[in-house]
Specification:
Length: 246
Amino acid sequence: MKMKGLAYILSVALLLGIVSTGTVYAEDGSQVHKKIGNYHHKGEFTHDLELLKQKANEMGISTEGKDAQTLHKELKEAYIKKHAEALGISTEGKDIETLKKEIRHVWTMKIAKEWGISTKGKDDKTIMKEVKEAKLKKEAQEFGISTKGKDFKQIKREIYKAKVLKYAKEMGIPTEGKDINELGKEVHDKMIYNAAEKLGVDTEGKTPKEIFHEIMMNHGEKAREMKLFPFKEEKIYFFRENHHGE
C-alpha cells in the first residue's frame, strides 16, 4: 500500500481512539506536535456510534445489533491488521498485541534509518530515545534555541513557545500579554477555522473539535495535500500543546 493510503488508515484509527501514536509510531516523543487534535489519547470519539458504524461499513464489518464498544473493538483489530499488512507484516496466527509490537518495531527501524541512527545491538526503546534527542536538537537549532545545560522538558517547552509565536505571527494573532498555552489554543482554533473556510466546511454552531473531526473524516487527504495543518511524513501532527511542554 502506498504511504498516502497508509496515512489515511492511521488518521482514521487515531481519530476514533483505536490506536495511540505510541502504538503505531513507536512514539517519536514529539509531544509538542503529537496530535490529531490530541483527542486520540482520550478516545473522545470512541463512543460515537454513528461514526463507528460509518467506519465499520467502510471496512466491511457488520454493524447489526452491535453497540459502540463492540464496534470499537472490531474496528481496532481491523485497522491494526490493515496497518500491519500495509507495512508488509504477516498477520496470520498473530494476536493484536503481537501485531502492535511488530508494527512498533517496523516504525522504529524506519524512523531510525531516516535519521541515520545505528540500530545495531539496540532495543527499540534505546533507538527511539536517540531519535528523540536528534529531533529535538534539530528543531532547537532551526529556531536558534541553545540546548546547552537544558533538559529535554525545558527544550521542548522552548520549541513549543517558538512554534506558537511563529504561527500566531503568520495568522495575525496578537500575542502581547497572553499565556503561551492560551495563545496555543488560539492558534489551534484559528487553524481549524481557516482550514474549514478553504474546504467549504460549514462551521456554524460547531466547536473547533467538531469541525476538525469533520475535516479529517471528509476532507483528510485534501487537507494534507493543501498543507492546512502541520502535516509531517506519514503522521498527521496537529499544533496544540496539551501537557505543558512535557
